[in-house]
Write a structure and sequence with these properties.
Keywords: ATP-binding, Nucleotide-binding, Transport. The chain is of the alpha+beta class. It is built from nine helices and 20 strands. The C terminus is likely disordered. The chain binds adenosine-5'-diphosphate and magnesium ion.
Amino acid sequence: MASSTNTFETLELKNVGRSFGGHNALVDLNLTVRAGEFIALLGPSGCGKSTALNCLAGLLPLTHGEILIDGKRVDILPSEKRDFGMVFQNYALFPHLSVEKNIAFGLQMRNLPKAEITRRVADGLALVKLQEQAKKLPGQLSGGQQQRVAIARAVVLEPRLVLMDEPLSNLDAKLRLEMRTEIRRLHQSLGLTTIYVTHDQEEALSLADRLVVLREGQVQQIGTPEELHNNPSNWHVADFMGYRNIVDLTVASVSGSLARVSGHGISIMATLAQTAAVGETVRVAIRPSDLVVLAPGESPQGRETIEATVNVVEYQGREFAVETTTTAGQNLFVHAYTALLPGSTVQLSVDPARALIYRSSLEKTGTRRELAGARS
Ligand code: ADP
Ligand code: MG
């Protein structure tokens, strides 16, 4: 299949918002997407991901803001005039139409010549490797095959933007991994621009060039997988990015970008990812893989250690996921490369650069109104 000819330079979302009655499902989404990018919208259930996607698709009118392609408003266009392809979680195939007729449907709606439709359907079937299933009905296919039909149906239209809403969440784990690779392959080989909604951080990190993390309708952070992985902007993003240990500690002293934090049987140096004052209660985020279990007699190289008792050891192939408890009863999750004995005492240490200090509150400073006033 030819790569999409119908391209653009930039897609801009400016202060896009949507409320339902008094409830703000999406607030001030600002994002510029470059052609060819793969963007993931990531966040827990109810954070506004589908709302954002449906606003883009034209299935929901905006209550605030505008959407522009190369400077021209598209949010005022009806859905079918936007020239976007949609792939939904539930596939939304026509049950009474064969696979090839499902794929042909959108092309027929565009009144394309018959030969062109035949060619594009054949290309689409080959693309998702469903040539053998062309005459079958959706009900005769597996979930993964149905999802591939839904993807083929969207991409044969050569849309300028592909929107996918949790397209893999109804598939089993193995198929989910296969289809993930498939989606990234199609994105690259067809030169698509894709906006992909998921609540699965691993899926988002592995697929996307950039991620948009949402919480309660508000953008928390936009960045590359590396940026989000290494430098989450607040504890909520850290939590989503696999910083499984989020511990409330008190700032004992501050020196430059480091601070001593203590409480719950812990006293360590950590990095100020957000500013905090002495005496303040903060959230310290540490990944299990950054908590090092010292071998008996091993020197912590000048760092303080945390004494903890091993509770539960789970074998995970290459490593062990271990739940420990500090002397003051705080659970800490660590990764170990040898099997630890439940009930034994271990010494843990962490590089201060990998223990990140965040304010407990997620509120931005200033109200929305004040921020809006400051911008204008
Ligand atoms: P997500 O896709 O991230 O799970 P949604 O965008 O579906 O979240 O929903 C965001 C919020 O908006 C939720 O609180 C949801 O209940 C609400 N919401 C979504 N659609 C509607 C609707 N049609 N009417 C009323 N509230 C809605
Ligand atoms: Mg949703």
